[in-house]
Amino acid sequence: MASNTHDAGHDAAHGAADAAHHAADAAHGSGGMPQLDFSTYGNQIFWLVVTLVAIYFILSRIALPRIAAVLAERQGTITNDLSAAEDLKAKATEAENAYNKALADARAEAQRIAADARAEIQAELDEAIAKADAEIAAKAAESEKAIADIKAGALDAVKVVANDTAAELVTALGGQADADAIATSVADRMKG
Amino acid sequence: MGKIFLYVALAAVLLSGLIFAPEHAGLAIHPTDQFLVKPLFGGDHVAWYTPTNVTLWLALAVAAIFALLVLGSSARSIVPSRAQSVAELAYGFIYKMVEDVAGKDAVRFFPYIMTLFMFIVTANFLGLIPMSFTTTSHFAVTGVLAIAVFVTVTAIGFALHGVKFLSLFWVSSAPLPLRPVLALIEVISYFVRPVSLCIRLAGNIMAGHAVLKVFAGFAAGLSIFGFLPIFAISAFYALEVLVAFIQAYVFTILTCVYLKDALHPSH
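Structure tokens for the assembled complex are given below, as produced in the milestone run.
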């Protein structure tokens, strides 16, 4: 780059007079800087003031109030949405609580119903068992009585058979069967 | 794909250098010609009312601001379009600057500061269009802006605080013997403000544009190596885009600082 600038310096010498003439011509001899050409200041200042006033009115009358309104509206929308979300969240929590309560109630109800049913069944069962027991006891007593009757009947029959057998035995041995004596001795034997 | 385009572009630059190179390489560097104020409709004389290229580019600045801030926001949508969100960004940027730098009670001056910023930033960017005229490169323009800021801020200071506004120059936290010296320095620095505002803006813009023109002049004188300055111009142009915004930002934020001094003069 340095050598380039050097070359440029050489070449510049050729067109220097031309350039200087041009610049001087353009800037009305004010040292080549158009910024220091005071003859254009009035013009620039006039148009600048017009421009600034125009921009100020555009901004303060139209643009800024409109943008401020849009920003405020957006802020409002966001706030509203947030509070709506808050409300909905509260509602959701409420609904969840209600649901949990209903669930707990239902569970308690179910338990109560189950307990009732169990107690009822138990009572019926107890009753049936008692009834069955009574029947069984009655039946057992009846049976015992029947057995006792049968036993008593059997003993009498044995006594008759024993008397008859003893009388026949005495007769067969050539003795005289005395009915009373045989009955007494059979009774004595059966006791012993 | 991108690489192929890059090579094609380089080849095109080289070829055009070969084809369009002047017969005898001569330098044609006129970096200040772009700042000439010329009547729009012929003639030589520039009277105060003559429509000139200054008028044209100031009008274009007004049109650009109107297009961006008014037409861009005309939909007033909750979910903004691109133009509307640029307008909202500009609004929010300057509003926050005024609020943060100059204080909450400076918000009533927001439209004036917005006007200032929008004009400078738009004029700077319009000036970056090749062959355009940069209004903010002229001391007449930046000088008016700087003096307007200076006069307004001083008037606000005296209107709000009367003579007490002068306490701005009386550094009460310094030791008593030092205070007159400091007061002198403060007064001088106060009066240098408009000068520095004016020269900083015009100087930066003018220098950047002049450098671009100088590089362009080199391109004409280097025959087939003419593409080298063109690359330099591309890089420098990016810097100029940055400067165009930063100078508008600096001018505006300094205005806010001065406004804060006027609203709260005590140190």
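Residues 24-263 of chain B form one domain. Chain B has one domain: 24-263. Further analysis is deferred to the final report.
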